[in-house]
Design brief:
heterodimer; A: 208 residues; alpha+beta; 54% helix; B: 196 residues; 7 helices; 5 strands
Chain lengths: 208, 196
């Protein structure tokens, strides 16, 4: 009995090692697109001048009259705008405000494009135009979208994925540290790298 | 030999940049779950540290940035800051963007009065401040050095992806399931980009 215990322990360790390695490996390929987008968008944020900052060119979508219901002229317009958008096949979350000319100005932002809608209660005309995101804008949108303060199942799903990626990053750290520690010949230099990283980071905290 | 270099670079870069990866992971969680932490941290109260009189006076055309820099230098608080002059030009607010404990100096040009305040350290504001800190062009070496570190993290992330793919491809037993996982991720990403 006593002779079998170390073998069982050894087998368990091998089993855990394998799970650890496979977790580290397989979680990588799945999140490659997100990881690349976060890397490239961070480069955009760190070097904004390299990527330009011109406005998006808007292309007219339609200009028509909305007569399905009486137009509102003041107050909270959200319910009205929701119906207006649905009637014009522009469902989904939006941001709206009254402009200085008492017109409703609505903006819908998607990853690939944004749609600007204007409704004039005086004439009941609703017009929409759409601008397609360039790479800089797309990267920025992917980088900054997250959180659960949103509508729509896809948006919530995206927020869940963002959370899972952060947890995965911590798993990569933990599983990576475990694999490194088990490679005894790399412990010394690994310790130097790890220690240097933390020392540099702490130096930044006090130096910034 | 190439494989060995790739593997060791993947590992040592990971070890060196562990604090950054941890910072970005934790800060993203803190931002996406802001309500669960400290929803109004931007309004964290300022705590008075001291008051004093600033001996020198500024010319009428002195810019807020110039005044801020001089005041911080006098107080030995040099570093990244944001200076704002009130609309009536009666007070200058200088916020020293210290990642651990930001300080605010309110200067009244009429009588040279300085009020020095600070915000106590709190985990979530600290994480968010560090997450958003980036960009070159600041006049402080530490800021530009931090921007270099952000660039290194960006390059490392791309390297981890490429080297990870290389190491995965070397393990024949994991090729098929790895490919399925990768295609699943790419497919899901494309669907979400196109539809949301």
């Amino acid at each position: 009995m006593t002779g079998t215990e170390p073998i069982v322990t050894h087998q368990r360790r091998i089993g855990f090692d394998k799970i650890n390695r496979r977790t580290h490996l397989y979680s990588g390929p799945f999140f490659i697109p997100w990881f690349l987008f976060y890397a490239l968008s961070s480069a955009v944020f760190n070097h904004p001048a390299w990527f330009g900052s011109g406005p998006v060119k808007m292309t007219p979508l339609f200009d028509r009259t909305y007569t399905a219901e009486p137009a509102i002229t003041q107050g909270d317009p959200r319910a009205f705008v929701q119906r207006l958008l649905k009637a014009n096949s522009l469902d989904g979350q939006f941001i709206v405000h009254w402009d200085d000319d008492q017109r409703l100005v609505v903006n819908q932002v998607r990853f690939l494009y944004n749609t600007a809608i204007t409704f004039d209660p005086a004439t009941r005309r609703v017009s929409a135009s759409r601008g397609w995101a360039n790479l800089r804008i797309l990267l920025g949108r992917v980088h900054t979208r997250g959180g659960y303060d949103t509508n729509g199942s896809l948006q919530i799903f995206w927020a869940v994925i963002v959370d899972v990626i952060q947890v995965t990053m911590m798993i990569w750290i933990a599983s990576g540290l475990y694999m490194w520690w088990n490679l005894k010949r790399f412990r010394g230099w690994g310790m130097v790298a790890l220690g240097s990283g933390f020392a540099l980071f702490v130096a930044f905290l006090f130096g910034l | 030999m190439f494989s060995k270099v790739v593997r060791q670079t993947h590992m040592y870069l990971g070890l060196l940049l562990t604090p950054w990866v941890l910072l970005y992971a934790l800060s993203t969680l803190a931002m996406t779950h802001r309500d669960a932490f400290h929803p109004n941290f931007y309004s964290t109260p300022w705590e008075k540290v001291s008051e004093q009189v600033f001996a020198a006076q500024f010319s009428a055309d002195a810019t807020p940035d110039f005044m801020g820099q001089e005041i911080l230098q006098t107080l030995h608080l040099e570093g990244n800051f944001r200076a704002t002059l009130s609309k009536d030009k009666k007070t200058l607010s200088v916020v020293r963007n210290d990642p651990v404990s930001p300080q605010r100096i309110t200067y009244t040009p009429a009588d040279g009065h300085l009020v020095i305040e600070k915000q106590n350290f709190a985990v979530q504001p600290f994480l968010e401040r560090m997450h958003r800190r980036r960009g070159f062009g600041a006049s402080f070496v530490a800021d530009n050095a931090w921007a270099v570190s952000v660039d290194i993290v960006v390059v490392a992330m791309i390297f981890w992806v490429l080297s990870g793919l290389w190491m995965w491809w070397e393990l024949k037993i994991t090729r098929a399931p790895g490919l399925a996982v990768a295609l699943g991720g790419i497919g899901l990403f494309i669907v979400l980009i196109l539809t949301s």
